[in-house]
Input
Amino acid sequence: MRRHQPGRILPSQITPEAVYLNRRQLLAAAVASGALAASTIATLPAQAEDLAPPPDPRLKFTRNAKYSVNVAPTGFKDITHYNNFYEFGTSKDDPAANAGTLRPQPWHVTVDGECASRGTYAFEDLIKGLPLEERIYRFRCVEAWSMVVPWLGVQLSGLIQKLKPTTNAKYVQFVTLMDPKQMPGESSAILQWPYVEALRMDEAMNPLALMAIGLYGRQLPNQNGAPLRLVLPWKYGFKGIKSIVRISFVATQPRNTWNISAPDEYGFYANVNPHVDHPRWSQATERPIGKGLFAARQPTLMFNGYENEVAYLYKGMDLRRDF
Output
């Protein structure tokens, strides 16, 4: 059993506060010839927050039924007001309350390392020409809560092919914006900043891996990782790095932020596994968000229900050791 050091208080031990109503929501975002236009934050009446805003007609996307679950998505307010995004605070309601300081437009992403297309790209140019899809994915947090989210994005493998990694690239690493003025939580020492995540190249090339730019048919709200975040539905949520500003192709396995912070609790792979508990709680069941505090817990599925699509990636591995 993995145990944390006695007396050490980790960020993940903080009890979430109750989700409170936040009146800011992201409004229109446009795509013209594959490019996203700037978004604005506006104040909406309270009753409007209970419903998802209509999809932005300027975002040209198609539903990918092959990779969408046939389950009703979690409500828009819950998805946008119950988040882990420590750059804006450690409570679940902090990101919605504090993320208005983030400026997601204009946005640039640096690509470097073992690839042919090194350089700094405007966000719009980075994803230009890639098919924009809606995929309804199960989402599972390591803290044993879950959602069903209608993500909008481009398949990560398509983006990687566009960037032309060399044969030396065995891993792809992602880095979040480092700017305490925009992300006040980065002024604290609660984690090592900036936030870093990585995947093995074959994981990144799996067709389930999505580079998300929106949800519910609209551009991502700041608190959900605007303008660009990673979505890996078979892994715990902390692998889904948000507000990405760097993509690096590297030859050796990088360490990720939570593994650096608490290596006995957070591994590199972070695959959803009901048979491997977190040292301080069981992963066998989960609490679906949006169904009330007293809703029955439901069984956690191996690889979050995506076993048929991803189990081959880990054939022969000891998933208790490589957690």
Confidence is low (pLDDT under 50) at residues 1-48. Residues 233 and 276 are 18 Å apart (CA to CA).
